[in-house]
Automatic annotation (TrEMBL), chain A:
Belongs to the class-V pyridoxal-phosphate-dependent aminotransferase family. Csd subfamily. It catalyses: (sulfur carrier)-H + L-cysteine = (sulfur carrier)-SH + L-alanine. GO terms for molecular function: cysteine desulfurase activity; pyridoxal phosphate binding. Pfam families: Aminotran_5. Keywords: Pyridoxal phosphate, Transferase. Its cofactor is pyridoxal 5'-phosphate. Residues 28-404 form the Aminotransferase class V domain. Its EC number is 2.8.1.7. This is cysteine desulfurase.
From TrEMBL, chain B:
InterPro entries: NIF_FeS_clus_asmbl_NifU_N (IPR002871). The lineage of its organism: unclassified sequences, metagenomes, ecological metagenomes. One of its GO terms (molecular function) is iron ion binding. This is Unannotated protein. One of its GO terms (biological process) is iron-sulfur cluster assembly. Residues 7-127 form the NIF system FeS cluster assembly NifU N-terminal domain. Gene3D superfamilies: 3.90.1010.10.
Length: 424, 146
């Protein structure tokens, strides 16, 4: 039995599934929340760039420079269409972490009368379920500016507690920065409701879409947000390329973060003016082959269809939740009902530390993540020092979940079986 | 490679029944060591008596490797002369960092030989060393106070 997509055929597109793990076992990859695998078409796009078109984009009067620029800008348009936006609103960064830092540093570079300028007493709102990437840049911005950082709490079942949203997102709030889907809990947050609260008080809304853009259709116009960040490598694209999407009128008002070549309009020895967005935020020769690879990744995802990917993952989620919850001693850390939930499963096992469970699963070729998942404050709130996390993608099927379940049973047997040997 | 060769009985036994896992107050040095990749934490209290390691007591949360290794360390180094304790520590670290090349000498590192298999798993080296590094840190802080 497999999911709605033909996973056997899909896996042929991904060279990594040709290898084996730990003495000849099939790779059961359940760590796509950390990074996804890459189809050959993405690797080919990168290689083709280097082999046939390599040249610094936006410079040079020669044919290669022309071709490189065209490929790079075509990738930008691919990303723009994917998010239902415009090419002028897509900034290529290193990854989502850089996208979010770009915003935080640009805001603190802003002049006193700018809408991005924060004063002591202003408020930045995040949530308790943020990945460190969407927490620490705001913590640091608050520390630099004297603004106050506060957050929407998380309920015991892993949802956002919005009961006090109007007092938390209050008139002093300038920035609301929230994850679309928790990388730990799998929770998909009610973005439109929170955007409405931010709009009511005139705050900017920033979406960390790392765990959503690769998995279902994200439309920036429909969500009515101001900024969005995602990483290419979680969306079958290469490492080293991420995206910051921002409303054009906002990007063009913002101060630069990194400065240098290709982000300028005019330069003298003592001063400079800056290019329009997105060039304003792309100082230096960018990760060109990686951006071209990301364009290929998005064409690949579109070929499969985001709706199909989503439906496939919904089917896997239902299957996994049922199976996992049937294991005695296993506790899901996150929502156990299907509504607004992605295919990410954090859990604890009675009497087995996640690191030991992860090691045991690895012996069966099963790749999971263990630890605090870069969400240490969330782990504290939920009172778990660490969890084991299985995160799925469209190249997973029911058999991968079955392997996980039997791997957990084996580990349970190994670590909790009574032992007789006496210590020396 | 199977689980038995990594998780030897002696490791699982120390994990289930850790030694010296109760802090004795008023140490010469107390340290807290974290494994930032997984959130594991060891708090270690050191008592010295002259050149003697009098007590190594600890609290903590973590995987079987980190907990068992800290238990073994506290048992092995308590009652040793400081320089002897440091030499045992160095032998243990050498085994754990050997990438599977060294088995360790039971005469020197005692139950520590059970962790030799850990050295084949780079991601677990820090687990095996966290308690030992906490001791080393506490000792240098303790000696600085003397």
């Amino acid at each position: 039995m497999s999911g709605l997509l033909d996973v056997t055929t899909i896996k042929r597109d991904f060279p990594i599934f040709n290898r084996t793990i730990r003495d000849g076992q099939r790779l059961i990859y359940l760590d796509s929340g950390a990074t996804s695998h890459k189809p050959k078409i993405v690797l080919d796009a990168e290689r083709d760039f280097y082999e046939n078109h390599n040249s610094a984009v936006h410079r040079g009067a020669h044919q290669l420079a022309e071709e490189a620029t065209e490929l790079f800008e075509e990738a930008r348009l691919e990303v723009a269409r994917f998010l239902n936006s415009d090419g002028s609103e897509i900034v290529f960064t290193k990854n989502a972490t850089e996208s979010l830092n770009l915003l935080a540093y640009s805001f603190s570079n802003s002049s006193k009368n700018s809408r991005f300028h924060l004063n002591p007493g202003d408020r930045i709102v995040v949530t308790e379920m943020e990945h460190h990437a969407n927490l620490i840049p705001w913590q640091q911005l608050a520390a630099r500016t004297g603004a106050e950082l506060t957050w929407l709490p998380v309920t015991t079942d892993g949802r956002l507690d919005l009961s006090s949203i109007d007092s938390i997102i209050n008139a002093k709030t300038k920035i609301v920065a929230i994850t679309h889907q928790s990388n730990v809990l799998g929770t998909i947050n009610p973005i439109k409701e929170i955007v409405a609260a931010a709009r009511n008080v005139g705050a900017l809304f920033i979406l960390d879409a790392c765990q959503s853009v690769p998995h279902f259709k994200v439309d920036v116009k429909d969500l009515d947000i101001d900024f969005l960040a995602f990483s290419g490598h979680k969306a079958v694209g290469p490492t080293g390329v991420g995206t910051l999407w921002g409303r054009a009128e906002l990007l063009n008002e913002m101060e630069p973060f990194l400065t240098g070549g290709s982000m300028i309009e005019s330069v003298t020895m003592s001063s400079a003016t800056f290019a329009e967005a997105p060039q304003r935020f792309e100082a230096g020769v960018p990760n060109m082959a990686q951006a071209v690879g990301l364009g290929a990744a998005i064409r690949y995802l579109n070929g499969i269809g985001m709706e199909n990917i989503h439906n496939h993952e919904v089917a896997l989620t239902k299957y996994a939740l049922d199976k996992l919850q049937s294991i005695p001693g296993l506790k899901i850390i996150g929502p156990t009902e299907m509504k607004n939930r992605g295919a990410v499963f954090s859990f604890t096992m009675e009497n087995i530390h996640p690191h030991d469970l992860g090691q045991a699963l690895d012996q069966n070729g099963i790749a999971v993540r263990t630890g605090h998942h870069c969400a240490w404050p969330l782990m504290r709130v939920l009172n778990v020092p660490a969890t084991t996390r299985a995160s799925l993608y469209f190249y997973n099927d029911y058999s991968d979940i079955d392997a996980l379940i039997s791997g957990i049973y084996e580990a349970k047997e190994f670590f909790t079986a009574p032992r007789t040997k006496e210590r020396k | 490679m199977n689980l038995d060769s990594l998780y030897q009985e002696v490791i699982l036994d120390h994990y289930k029944n850790p030694l010296n896992k109760k802090l004795i107050p008023n140490p010469i040095a107390q340290v807290t060591h974290l494994n930032t990749s997984c959130g594991d934490e060891i708090i270690l209290n050191l008592h010295l008596n002259g050149d003697l390691v009098e007590h190594i007591t600890w609290e903590g949360i973590g995987c079987s490797i980190s907990q068992a290794s800290t238990s073994v360390m506290s048992d092995l180094l308590t009652g040793k002369q400081i320089n002897e304790a440091m030499s045992i520590l160095e032998s243990f670290v050498e085994v754990i960092q050997s990438k599977g090349k060294l088995n360790g000498d039971e005469e020197i590192i005692g139950d520590g030989v059970a962790f030799a298999g850990v050295s084949k798993f780079p991601a677990r080296v820090k687990c095996a060393l966290i308690g030992w590094m906490a001791f080393k840190d506490a000792l240098s802080q303790g000696l600085a106070k003397k």
